[in-house]
Amino acid sequence: MPLFLGLGAIASYFENVILHWFHSYEYTPGILNIRYYDLSLGAYLSQVYYVSSVAFFIAAFQLRFGWTLLFSAMFVGIEYGFLALGVYKLIWWHPAFTGVALPVYFWIAKKWWILLLQGSSRFIRWFTLVGTNYVIYADLESIPFFSGHYHFTSGWFQDLARDTVVVLIIYTTVRAAITATVCFYRLHWSILGMVTAILWIGYLVSMQLHILTFKYLWSFYVFSAYDIVILFICCKFNLLLLNNARDKTTLRSWFQP
């Protein structure tokens, strides 16, 4: 589970840069009424779940390069299929870039799997926790977010929906990194509570500065409660990965089918 979520985070980070910052392409799956939210949902599901599921499969079974090329070609074919259906529009991106990027991504997945099993890299363990937190945060935030329960206003983009998506990505990344760090170092529970309180104060300050606006008061409480949920999950995952560093068979038995 931590590896799968971490792989989803890596794919999402890359997608965030080329899509939301550099406007590489457009999705129009027609699921949501707001165009940019519709685009964001399509990209998120594609990268965080579909592509990362294949990467996890390749890593778990340590498939050879021929399989990597086959799955890469499959996703390139899907892109061309979406272009033919009119639900995908290229701006400066090209399916050939996908054909080059995916083998690299799948190679990273295989190496990441090995390093987690070996339990030899503290950085890999920390980054896995960050990625796990990021994806779980994003999943929890998605329903109220796409329902319009809150929005961000930074002034970076004229489109409020795009502004909200980009700032939310930054917020989520920062929250994920902070929570992962305090869990990684296994700090005292009082420090964990203090960090959570600081995050909540940050939300209140953002609201006072009109950067973050909630449609309903209860949405703020739910938004804040996510930090407690993520903190608990992250501590559990950290113990799982830490135990693997002491007993290399633990994580193997967790992941293998």
Could you please describe the fold and organization of this structure?
- By secondary structure, the protein is mainly alpha-helical.
- The protein has one domain (2-255).
- The chain is 77% helix and 5% strand.
- It contains nine helices and four strands, in the order αβααβααβααβαα.
- The strands form two sheets. A two-stranded antiparallel ribbon has the order 1-2. A two-stranded antiparallel ribbon has the order 3-4.
- Helix 1 packs antiparallel against helix 2, helix 5 (122-146) packs antiparallel against helix 6 (160-184) and helix 6 (160-184) crosses helix 8.
- The radius of gyration is 19 Å and the shape is flat.
Strand order of the largest sheet: 1-2
Question: Which residues form runs of ≥5 with pLDDT under 50?
Answer: none
Give a count of the beta strands, DSSP E runs of length 2 or more: 4
* Radius of gyration, in angstroms, nearest whole number: 19 Å
Whole-number mean pLDDT? 87
**Number of helices, counting only DSSP H or I runs of 4 residues or more:** 9
Shape type: flat
Beta-strand proportion: under 5%
Question: Tell me about the biggest sheet?
Answer: 2 strands, antiparallel
Order of helices and strands: HEHHEHHEHHEHH
Helix fraction, binned, reads: over 70%
Distance between the termini: 12 Å
- Structural classification: mainly alpha
Tell me the number of structural domains. 1
In short:
By secondary structure, this protein is mainly α. It is built from nine helices and four strands, in the order H-E-H-H-E-H-H-E-H-H-E-H-H. The protein has a two-stranded antiparallel ribbon. It has a two-stranded antiparallel ribbon with strand order 3-4.
